[in-house]
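Protein translocase subunit SecY
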Amino acid sequence: MSGRFIDRVEPLLRLVPTVPKPKVALSMSSRLLWTFLALTAYMVLSITPLYGVNVAQAAPLFNPLIAVIFASQSGTMAELGIGPIIIAGIIMELLAFSDIMNIDMEDPNDQMRFNAFTKLVAVIIAFGEGAIMIAAGQLGVITPSLAFIVWLQLVFGAVIVILLDDMVSKGWGIGSGISLFILISIIRTVFWDTFSPIIPPGQVLPLGVVPAIAVGSYVAAVDHTLAALSSIIYRIGYPSLVGLVATLVLGGLVLYVELMEVSIPMVLTQYGGYKISYPFKVMYVSVLPIIFTAYTVALIYNGLYFLATTYNAHASNALLNAIACVHQISLNGQLTTAPCTSSLLYFLQSTPLQLTPQFVVVHIVLYALLSVVYAYLWVNLAGMGPEDQAKTIAESGWHIPGFRSSTRVIARYLERYINALTLTSGLIAGVVAALGDVMGVFGTGIGLILLVEIVIQYYSLAMQEQLFEMYPMLKRFAGKL
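Structure:
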């Protein structure tokens, strides 16, 4: 055990800032207060501009889709959002499940080291990500003298978010900081797209759909023309009526699918053949595959866009034209740079300025295929495959009626279910995310899935806490299971 890597780096892990667990279990009201304070601190970071950065020139983190997932706010202390935490968590989970780190997750000491190591990796990622953003011009033009100061601000904001997540997750708050920050980020985006009274440059109607409908209706009543009102139906680059309807419809569909389960009958022989139904969610792999998909597409798009603007700025190379081509188009009376509709770059956009039927088809197919591929990879790497599930069931003393109580037999039986659920969940996540891009869903399609999942999670936690407060002995019993 002494030769393990995590044991050798333990002295370094002690230097990682952390939040201690509460000495006694806090009441529901106290946890709600700490949750509110953590949320307030994050909101303060998300509205505090970075010194030395022109907020108007700052671009979203990679693209608006990734910005929503990472709860990032452009040009603020929350520019990196929870990105470093999510990336570090994924890396550490893969290392742990693949036994590369040789960690016993049932050992409290190993759990503490694992969590500390995850935070250390998150801080390292924040250092690197902040430097890359500045070097790539993601925050606009920054003078060399201010670059170091901006970099320190990005890292400082990321460390505060890491500690806030640590505080909420260790029992001071409710749920996890990651879920909390994603939830408030998506809700704020949806609320802003629905009710914002701000009129964007070059527009005559407010940004929010509800104020835009009110102004459009007033113009229609005064000028007896429906031009302004009809323009709200679908606005490229801005919230629209189609986006609002799609948000409600897809949100209801995602909620319905999230609550769907496939139950497999099980028997516990040692207690007289007690029967239960072992549930598997239809959204078996949740949103992780589509997060990987969006991240992959965003990285490829940024690379090709750099290639187009740097080496093919005049669209003179025929080969590059088919891969990465940009041109000037008129949008709302202003010239702007956009990918050529005939190039691969065009189909990798999240929200195109020129919507074509080809984009709709290719975008949906691309997201669906990548999401399914990542779903299968994640299931096999993260300990969610048939063998892993069968091992858990067999060790618990359960078996499938009519089959031998063997891990191999149970795995063979579960294989068809898990493979089908992996395909279904990956496909649903990919299609919903792509439709969100095409139809202008508020908060993006991925954000909508996350919103529904987190709301269900917090609802379950609230019901559980209420039950534990009514029956304290039940909490003690659950803690021993």
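The longest strand covers residues 261-268.
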